[in-house]
């Protein structure tokens, strides 16, 4: 048995509502958890203050910070709260089912965030793997979409975001829009993907100009463009990296250049590598008949 024992807190060590006042002068000087979160950062708050923000309000005559501290004390901290369902939490004075659901939802969000942060990211090592991943999402569409695939330092997928949507023959997007999405995911590198609903996966001149603009801007901010994959409805795709249109590669192409059908899973292809090219400003991807 552990030799650690829980020490009993004397009454004068517990927070009591008498320490708070309705005096306007005193209230003006009081900085609550929400204000401190905004001024000092959410990470600077303790568990009771964070829980107070989730609860929002306390009881009549009892500030929300007192309610949150009592809740943590009763259930032995966040670990104890995380083992309770909403109905059990709602039995605590000052909660009710609505606030209990807020607590349960917040704890579940934290659990999911941790689980996804430690989950291995699917590797993205070839143009074929990008095309296979996007085929079900983009292949059936009758309009163009542009997606940014954000990669970590080991080519693991950090995130995928749609950055533009257009018509049958193109969609307008700027390098700034694309790089903003990559930076939001803390990307070390990025891959562009868009579809050609008209059926020809070959890159148009506008596709090439836009790729050059993104590659140049990405080199400036340290988030290189490693590939731009264009997908057709029949599963064929083109990779500008495989075609040699993205210049400074750090790995050789493994599957040659040109358009080819995307395999159902992974498959072989060119290993994406950092790119650098000239050009900047807004471009229209996929414009023109194909």
What does this molecule look like?
Helix 9 packs across helix 10 (205-221). The termini are far apart. This protein is elongated. A hairpin with a 4-residue loop joins strand 5 (225-231) and strand 6 (236-239). The longest helix has 22 residues, at 97-118. With 290 residues, the protein is an alpha+beta fold. 36% of the residues lie in helices and 14% in strands. Strands 2-1-4-5-6-7 form a 6-stranded mixed β-sheet, with helices on both faces. The chain has a two-stranded antiparallel ribbon with strand order 3-8. Mean pLDDT is 76; it is low at 1-29 and 249-284.
Q: What's the number of helices?
A: 10
What's the alpha carbon Rg, rounded to whole Å?
Answer: 27 Å
Strands side by side in the biggest sheet: 2-1-4-5-6-7
Mean pLDDT: 76
Query: How is the biggest beta sheet arranged?
Result: 6 strands, mixed
Structural class computed from helices and strand pairing: alpha+beta
Low-confidence stretches: 1-29, 249-284
Helix amount, in percent? Answer: 25-40%
Write down how many β-strands occur, each being a DSSP E stretch of 2 or more residues: 8
Give the end-to-end Cα distance, rounded to a whole number of Å: 75 Å
Order of helices and strands: HHHHHHHHEEEHEHEEEE
In one word, what is the shape? elongated
Strand proportion: 5-15%
Write the layout of secondary structure elements.
Layout: H1 24-29, H2 33-40, H3 47-55, H4 64-74, H5 77-82, H6 86-89, H7 97-118, H8 127-138, E1 145-151, E2 157-165, E3 171-173, H9 175-184, E4 189-195, H10 205-221, E5 225-231, E6 236-239, E7 260-261, E8 283-285
Parallel strand pairs: 4-5
Antiparallel strand pairs: 1-2, 1-4, 3-8, 5-6, 6-7
């Amino acid at each position: 048995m552990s030799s650690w024992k829980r020490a009993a807190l004397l009454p004068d060590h517990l927070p009591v509502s008498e320490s708070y006042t309705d005096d306007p002068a005193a209230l003006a000087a009081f900085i609550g958890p929400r204000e401190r979160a905004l001024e000092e950062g959410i990470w600077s708050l303790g568990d009771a203050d964070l829980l107070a923000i989730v609860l929002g309000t306390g009881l009549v005559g009892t500030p929300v910070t007192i309610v949150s501290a009592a809740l943590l004390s009763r259930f032995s901290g966040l670990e104890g709260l995380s083992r309770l369902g909403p109905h059990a939490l709602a039995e605590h004075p000052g909660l009710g089912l609505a606030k209990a659901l807020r607590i349960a939802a917040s704890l579940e969000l934290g659990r999911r965030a941790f689980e996804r942060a430690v989950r291995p990211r699917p590797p993205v090592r070839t143009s074929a793997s990008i095309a296979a991943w996007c085929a079900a999402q983009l292949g059936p569409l009758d309009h163009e979409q542009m997606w940014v695939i954000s990669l970590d330092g080991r080519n693991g997928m950090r995130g995928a975001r749609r950055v533009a949507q257009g018509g049958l023959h193109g969609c307008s997007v700027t390098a700034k829009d694309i790089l903003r999405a990559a930076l939001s995911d803390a990307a070390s590198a990025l891959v562009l993907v868009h579809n050609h609903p008209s059926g020809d996966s070959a890159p148009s001149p506008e596709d090439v100009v836009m790729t050059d603009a993104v590659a140049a801007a990405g080199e400036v901010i340290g988030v290189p463009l490693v590939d731009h994959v264009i997908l057709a409805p029949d599963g064929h795709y083109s990779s500008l990296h495989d075609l040699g249109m993205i210049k400074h590669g750090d790995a050789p192409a493994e599957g040659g250049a040109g358009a080819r059908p995307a395999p159902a899973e992974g498959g072989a292809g060119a290993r994406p590598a950092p790119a650098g090219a000239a050009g900047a400003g807004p471009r229209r991807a996929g414009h023109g008949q194909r």
